[in-house]
Predict the 3D structure of the following.
Amino acid sequence: MASGTDRRPIGLFDSGVGGLTVLSALMDRLPAESTIYLGDNARAPYGPRPGDDVRAFTLECTRWLLAHDIKLLVLACNTATSQALPEVRAASSVPVLGVVRPGALAAAAATRSGHIGVVATTGTVGSGAYPAALGEVAASLHVTQLACPRLVPLVEAGAREGAEVDHAVRGYLGELMEADPAIDTLLLGCTHYPLLRPLIEQAVGPRVAVVDSAFSTALAAEDLLDALAARAPDGGAATNLVYTTGDLAAFEVVADRIFPGALPGVEQAIVTAD
Amino acid sequence: MASGTDRRPIGLFDSGVGGLTVLSALMDRLPAESTIYLGDNARAPYGPRPGDDVRAFTLECTRWLLAHDIKLLVLACNTATSQALPEVRAASSVPVLGVVRPGALAAAAATRSGHIGVVATTGTVGSGAYPAALGEVAASLHVTQLACPRLVPLVEAGAREGAEVDHAVRGYLGELMEADPAIDTLLLGCTHYPLLRPLIEQAVGPRVAVVDSAFSTALAAEDLLDALAARAPDGGAATNLVYTTGDLAAFEVVADRIFPGALPGVEQAIVTAD
């Protein structure tokens, strides 16, 4: 809505490619805003790593982004958000958003039965970040989580439809809905899952609202820029930069499977400890 | 969730007493935060006034709040939000939240049918602020508004239940639901209406989710303080100050009807043009 004068980019961090769904939602909602995305593919996935490593790597990468004169930092990564958000906020000179709270707020608003299902990676489920965030919004919510470890590899292999991924999605969601048939809201707690949204919506049927943290986070970024009067000018030339700490060709192969043809060129980032 | 070190108060502005529901939600969600509330009762209600007056008065009052070293400014007033938010943001040295967008986001998340009803004062309905904010979240939403001019006087007269207010609520909501029977989400677009929530929920029945801008705004304030790492310390001594530009005794009479026994003492504020 608002037009402003702050042309500095929004920084987005993810351990790998999943946060590109958040970038995509941001570019869609805020076309006038420049962005700079960093994927720490050299050390991905973060899920199996100890919390101290996740925090140290996330702080290194967000320092790299802060050195690029960003106005807002988005942890576009469920693992980094659930394990390192307070530390990143304490170390950041600019406001910091994670992906967990915006999704939790939308899910809490969406449910009527008070029964919410959360699908995520094994690491995010284990962190308890979504049940904690939902519990902070309303103590009365019933939250049932399910780890869906087969979905990220399928998405990264390019599967968006077809028997194999459909079978996996239906299997997971059938198990979740059987665990709590009163679930009327499904929170996608992994940045890869919005890419499977059509399959997921078919699997759960129209009675269940599907809430996507990537979209909710883009709305939260919009709100934050507005509250701070820090929007870029409308009609300005936005630049969208994507960096990876890992192998460029490998990143592009996976990223192209996720966003065919829509990604800016990818550059190499060198991230160092202090 | 987070504990911080920023003890500065949150400033809240309303044309009168309605914003006390936002103050109440904030005090409930953020008991460690100090607050300072200013009601411009000397010039209330703002609804019938020309936009230029609303903007001038709102800027005068928010300057008064900013002079009290606040860390966040909340326009706890639908009229001020819909008519003066961009001007206040441009003039403010601290982040500014309005009540319209948080309610709109929650309603957009809550609806399944895509049909949302908005009840508000005549002025807020006429401003089109809620349809505009809902349209920004999702262009596909169908929004039906209804002005309910009898409700504010009833609330300010102390009516929270009983035949007269129940009849008024049922009459308005019956008319709204008849205008669009597909409405499944009702947005309370006036800061007084949360006080009638039990009656409103009974009138619309369990199929319709009731979304309250006051609560949504308190959640948004929480998010903003967290993103900025600007929370007060947990367990600190929060102070909650309430000022009015109008008659103290009259303010207290109405405020006590709304929040019996729960209000801090009210002080006189002198607000001047530049």
Remarks:
- The mean pLDDT of chain A is 93.
- Chain A is about 45% helix and 15% strand.
- The first helix of chain A runs from residue 20 to 29.
